[in-house]
């Protein structure tokens, strides 16, 4: 491995957690029209930003307590996360959570692991109106035309390749754009399929123990 500083960009839904919490949320509450929006987002007929904003706008802000209760009841953390975080702290590897998910889900779930809020990139959720509104606090820059909402490739470009060895850990369509900028990809599920389709080198994983085990040799 080069002397560039290693930095990890890790997805949340379906990567840090065992399931995609946003998808599970809408499967459970089933607001009218959600299934079609999910389908169109998955097939790329709608951009991720448009799909996410349209989905959440279907639900009244008044049900926030029920949303939180549901998430807390079903959210499960993938095995080995603490081991990976300990490894990163020991070896001075910067660990960022880059997620197309929602702040009201991510922050409570990650708080026990001591990840600084400044290292968590996600969408902001506004419950002040009659219906839920999503703010994309890290939108696409001039180099990305995918209308991602929370744009992972834009975040990654803040860490230039000349200085950083960029490592992506992910599983879904929200990781596709950023994967093109990674020096190393740990992939599962849809991201693994995409890496195979595009013949992009990657390392498979099921737990974060697998990530630690396959991590590149770090310089002294």
UniProtKB/TrEMBL annotation:
Group of enzyme by EC: hydrolase
Keyword entries, A-Z: Hydrolase
Keyword Hydrolase attached: yes
EC number(s) from the headed UniProt entry: 3.1.3.-
Full protein name: MtnX-like HAD-IB family phosphatase
